[in-house]
């Protein structure tokens, strides 16, 4: 029996819709600029860019419906995203069979300290301070593939205090879910419990304390989060 120097931490997990068990989270990968209109609004040409990735930490997950406004920033942005949850892993997974690795799908918010991310970009540094801070990954319950199938099209949106801020369609993703899994598995060894946040449509912008954010993806329902 292994004896730890201090109490071991609990594995972060997400609820699974319609089931008593939970989904243990191993890693959180994120795809950058995967919608053309968002790439343009961030000052990039989507036609010239292969997919690239960054990570959040499993303990960045939020399932309580609240997002504490983080320290060291005055410019926190919302990014609504489709989240892919994996039940299988591997390396160099072919795109043709990549969807066989998917357990289900969820709605996520990639909360971003945009000012810190901007400083990191200018200096050519990693994005961790802008992306992987505490509570930066509010995610809904996971809807299993048996219930939802593999959504390739459908409305994705985010509203703040009842006003729509982001609106798009999953069909607008530059790199589709299977392609994302295939490309990512060529860079990392994927495993059951991994989450992939697949990018956001245009319209990202700041949030303030007291804001009520409601993200929606057709077929998955909604994710409601209050900034506190």
Number of strands: 18
Order of helices and strands: EEEHEEEEEEEHHEEHEEHEEEE
Structural class estimated from helices and strands: alpha+beta
| Whole-number tally of structural domains | 1
Which second-level CATH architecture applies? Alpha-Beta Complex
Given as residue ranges, the uncertain stretches (5+ residues, pLDDT < 50) are none
Tally of helical runs: 5
Share of helix, binned: 10-25%
* Approximate shape: globular
Within the CATH hierarchy, at the fold level, what is the topology?
A: Fumarylacetoacetate hydrolase, domain 2
Q: Look at the structure and give the mean pLDDT.
A: 95
CATH class reads Alpha Beta
What is the spatial order of strands in the main beta sheet?
4-3-15-8-9-12
> Looking at this structure, what is the CATH superfamily?
Fumarylacetoacetase-like, C-terminal domain
Rg calc: 17 Å
Distance from N terminus to C terminus (CA atoms, Å) equals 42 Å
| Main beta sheet strand tally, sense and closure | 6 strands, mixed
Strand content: 25-35%
